[in-house]
Amino acid sequence: MEDDSARTYFLLDHPPTPVPSQRVVDLYRRAFVLPPWNNQTSETEAFNCLKCDYVVPLFQGVFAEEERKTIGFSLAAEKIFQNGHSLVWVNMVCVDPDRQGRGIGRTLIEMTIEAARRRGVESVGLTTLKQSPAAKLYEKLGFKRSSSAASTCPGYGLFSLKF
Ligand SMILES: CC(C)(COP(=O)(O)OP(=O)(O)OC[C@H]1O[C@@H](n2cnc3c(N)ncnc32)[C@H](O)[C@@H]1OP(=O)(O)O)[C@@H](O)C(=O)NCCC(=O)NCCS
């Protein structure tokens, strides 16, 4: 029987380590090698990709842990535009494939949204494959698809949640 009480979520305004840990890199690679992504990312590529999401200004991350081991994360950052508007942009969300379907991804996004709301930004935005389970999850949580996003990158959609 699964024990949900052994799972902990941390909302962080700085990355948990200066660069992504080996465990975070492994988790990312195992999550994105599966359909619909099928990404055969090398360890170095994965590290570099995640590192970019760690070094952003105004970092906002949520990490899920079991027995002090990371089992999922959401990496986001606040962006403030020249005209004063601001949003939280979600760069990356993934959950350990062995633990998917247990509400972890939903909690990561809900905490991301709540933290963004507390920051006082106007919206939360992200892109993902239009035909992915993640897209369904975002829509369930109130994100709306923008029809114009497909022109930016085929197959992808822009999703935003306005407060
Ligand atoms: C997308 C992802 C983060 C979801 O995490 P998760 O912990 O498995 O999701 P949850 O268990 O919280 O499920 C949330 C909802 O999404 C739906 N969902 C999740 N995975 C699904 C799947 N494979 N097919 C259909 N629906 C799915 C669930 O039905 C659930 O809805 P409910 O809360 O109304 O029951 C996770 O599957 C993942 O890491 N995927 C690979 C990486 C990825 O796609 N990241 C997002 C890219 S932007």
Q: How would you describe this protein?
A:
With 163 residues, the chain is an alpha+beta fold. It has a single domain, classed as Gcn5-related N-acetyltransferase (GNAT) (Aminopeptidase, 3-Layer(aba) Sandwich). Helices cover 29% and strands 33% of the residues. It is built from four helices and seven strands; from the N terminus they run E-H-H-E-E-E-H-E-H-E-E. A seven-stranded mixed β-sheet has the order 1-2-3-4-5-7-6, sandwiched between helices. It binds coenzyme A. Coenzyme A binds next to helix 1, strand 4, helix 3 and helix 4.
Q: Estimate what percentage of residues fall within beta strands.
A: 25-35%
* Radius of gyration, whole Å: 15 Å
Spans of at least 5 consecutive residues with low confidence: none
Globally, the shape reads: globular
Class inferred from helices and paired strands: alpha+beta
H/E element order: EHHEEEHEHEE
Overall pLDDT confidence: 93
Spatial strand order of the main sheet: 1-2-3-4-5-7-6
How large is the count of helical segments?
4
Instruction: Look at the structure and give the CATH class.
Output: Alpha Beta
> What is the assigned CATH homologous superfamily?
Gcn5-related N-acetyltransferase (GNAT)
Question: If you consult CATH, what is the topology?
Answer: Aminopeptidase
Strands, total number: 7
CATH architecture: 3-Layer(aba) Sandwich
Q: How does the major sheet shape up?
A: 7 strands, mixed
Number of domains: 1
Roughly how much helix do the residues carry, as a percent range? 25-40%
Described by its quaternary structure, the protein is single chain
- Small molecules in complex: coenzyme A
Question: Whole-Å distance between the termini?
Answer: 38 Å
